[in-house]
Please model this.
Amino acid sequence: MLPAMTHGGDLIADVLARHGVTHLFTLCGGHISPILTGAQARGLRVVDVRDEANAVFAADAVARMTGTIGVAAVTAGPGVTNTVTAVKNAQMAQSPVLIFGGATATLLKGRGSLQDIDQMSVMKPITKWATTVKTVPALVPVVERACQLAVEGVPGPVFIEVPVDLLYPEATVREWYAKEAGLGKAKGIGAKAIELYIRGHLYRQFRAPVLPEIHVPIKLPSLRSGDGIERAADAIKQAERPVIVVGSQALVGVKDPGRLARAIGMLGAPVFLAGMARGLLGRTHELQLRHNRGAALKQADVIVICGFPFDFRLGYGRGLNRAATLIAANLSAHELRKNRRPDITAEMHAGEFLIGVADRVSSAPDGSAGGAGGLPRGIDRWRGWLDELRGQELARDTEIRAKAQQAGELIDPVQFFLRMEEAMADDAVLVVDGGDFVATASYIVRPRAPLSWLDPGVFGTLGVGGGFALGATMARPGKEVWLVWGDGSSAYTLAEFDTYVRHGVAPIAVIGNDASWAQIAREQVEVLGTTLGCDLRRTDYHKVAEGYGGVGLVLTDPSRIDGVLAEAKAIAKTGRPVCINVHLRKTDFRKGSISI
Model:
């Protein structure tokens, strides 16, 4: 029998606390209230948002930045369905997120109760595991299992449906049933039979045999005694023009990214960082390249793809030198060979793979490694190759700077980001949510440190910004968080300024206002000759932020860029969120870009 004051929300919160969860993101609902109170009573910070999708986006951001499980709780019916895009985004980004969904009482399912729908059919296709809990004693083992499943193997979101009568105290639930079913007042055989059935149901619901704790062993991929690592190390040592590409999966669950950064330094090969791996080597590093990745991959003789599928970003595997030795490491067996079959594969955590390869290269008995500065002695053989790529990098940076036009009406986006790059703090976090404006930023702004860049991932979801920025401020309290929004994407989550104010966090939002869905318009106008559906207004987004309690700044004069950025930083330091409405001039910087 449970202690008198314990309820299902307390049991759930106990498990979350044991797993190191520190934040729970939510939008309130009567179906889930005990989860919130239980979490707060156990020291978890409960953060309520203005849209359920943003609760999941925020949980996703925390998971990516901390290496722990991100948790969200939403109410039944529309509360659950509102999360679908965010859950699918987490699935494709391989983020370990746990979502609790409220549900009608166990005896009322399928009877037309408020917000009662088949939530399992909605959530099963977009999660690693979706389940419903049927008794109070099952809550703990099910949540334990969910926490394990979210992080093991290929990480991903897990959904638990929790009926409302499993969450509230037993005495309260019995009162509900007594009131609705008239327990103790039954007359007639039929009524007494129903009463007996309900009493039996309540007994089982609260006193069913306690299930044993469910421990699902974490799958540790086998490399056949390290065969993949050994072969990869041998290939790299023989390379003349090696290139490494590191994707988001290499940082999943990583609590010490410095260890991975040191391994890459030991390898000494040119490296491109993508997704959450951006910033892994800091703002600048002699091995890190940002431009001309496609050209480098066509020239390389050994290519190492770590935690990155052969999807459209790598030309479906066709954008690589066919004569090169192709090495891939990925937690997913499917992604290892999707569209292209590598010569050497390792089904394992991509970060651990790189560390293992670096250990073998740096300790090679033939003396080919372990040189000065922690780099392989073979770096001398790669120096010309690295210098060639860095020369191309410098040329591209110079070309981009030359396109910046300070003079003229309104703000040139290239010039703005060149100044923002210099204004950001050394420990700043970057959240990006948009098309054309964000793509321009990616050429110029440099993440400062590991786990300090948040983008939607391969799903390309617009609307992640408000929730991601919230999660980032929670994961990195006191740090500068910059949210780069397109004017189109900003409207999805601008209301979260209300959440920032209520919870005392202060991201700096920058909205590139060109009155257009420019990413789409560029191609649509070129091909179809019309801006149909792409036109917006020069809306006063800064005033919207002010209406929610934030501070709004408007920027139309190029000579004021530095001053406005400095003002925004100063305001954010006082604890107030800031929105800069940057009125952009038309530019052909990204002319010809593909948006589909």
Remarks:
- The mean pLDDT is 88.
